[in-house]
Write a structure and sequence with these properties.
124 residues, 4 strands
Length: 124
């Protein structure tokens, strides 16, 4: 699965290609918030979505290869945490160190560890 795109507060993932975030942000702001954002700078569009609780998922293809998640981490919804947990199980080895550090720091990894322990108990 390609995880690149935007992740809504309700956990819905909107896919785009590696360079498609800007075009997708214009569509999302228009569709969900009736904001005409084509005149906004890229960082202003991103900030508008971040301020509404969205996460941006990208992929770094140079230096630190891997998925990178940009978000207001402390404000993630349970649905977003669930999506990120599933993403971690699928491609955790393809996430940048910074993203893994953020996941650990904001205790999303603790929830993953709890799920792992529960699964191990169930399998016994």
């Amino acid at each position: 699965m390609n995880y690149i795109g935007w992740l809504a507060p309700d956990g819905t993932h909107f896919n785009c290609d590696i360079y498609g975030h800007e075009e997708l942000s214009v569509k999302l702001l228009q569709e969900y918030y009736k904001v005409e954002s084509s005149n906004l700078k890229v960082n202003e569009r991103d900030d508008a979505l971040f301020n509404k609780g969205w996460c941006r998922i990208g992929f770094q293809s140079f230096i630190n290869h891997g998925y990178v998640i940009q978000a207001r981490w402390r404000y993630l919804t349970e649905e977003q945490k669930s999506f990120i947990q599933n993403m971690y199980f699928d491609v955790g080895n393809q996430m940048t160190n910074q993203t893994l550090d953020d996941i650990k720091y904001y205790n999303i990894i603790d929830e993953i560890n709890k799920q792992d322990q529960t699964l191990k108990r169930i399998k016994k």
